[in-house]
Amino acid sequence: MSNKQLKNTTPYNPLPEDFFQQPTLKLAEALLGCLLIKETEEGIASGYIVETEAYMGPEDRAAHSFGNRRTKRTEIMFSEAGVAYTYAMHTHCLVNVVSGPMEKPEAILIRAVEPVDGIELMKKRRNIEVPRNLTSGPGKLTKALGITMGDYGRRFTEPPLLLAKGITPQEISRGKRIGIDNSCEAKDYPWRFWITYNPFVSRHRKKD
């Protein structure tokens, strides 16, 4: 695809608003294969989503909004589905798709993507040459695509941050989420989804 300016004319077809109205667990699976696109002054970078994790809000001890915790950081999670929830962790920016109905703060973490557009730009941003390592993790992909805390609250249906139709996964796997070992019973919920055998998935675990 060409690096056309998305604000003027786009070769992409943004996902419709009603796509985001699916229940969170179904949406987390439906996002696999979708194209995540970010436009900056440097150009366009994009990738197929290959791994997601669902966070089920007030009842989920691993969610930032567990117990209806409402802070400046989590406020966007209480809004309508289909907007970006970005937050910083260990100096990295992570990006989530807000899901669930209004006032039900659920979200889906995008854990990994497979690079499509702007691969040379991604290499420059990440200062690495190996394509497989560019976007195989939630902090890696945001840096590679140019997603920042400034994208907090943006809609995924319009530039500069878009979700568009991509590919259809041949097989999808499901297992425990990663990095939440201190969340009691929630650490065992099988709410992580990934495209089976895709090399850009952040972590392949035998017990999954």
UniProtKB/TrEMBL annotation:
Its EC number is 3.2.2.-. InterPro entries: Formyl_transferase-like_C_sf (IPR011034), MPG (IPR003180), MPG_sf (IPR036995). Pfam families: Pur_DNA_glyco. One of its GO terms (molecular function) is DNA binding. It comes from the Bacteria. GO terms for biological process: base-excision repair. Transmembrane segments: none annotated. Keywords: DNA damage, DNA repair, Hydrolase. Belongs to the DNA glycosylase MPG family. NCBIfam families: 3mg, PRK00802.1-2. This is Putative 3-methyladenine DNA glycosylase. It comes from Cytobacillus oceanisediminis.
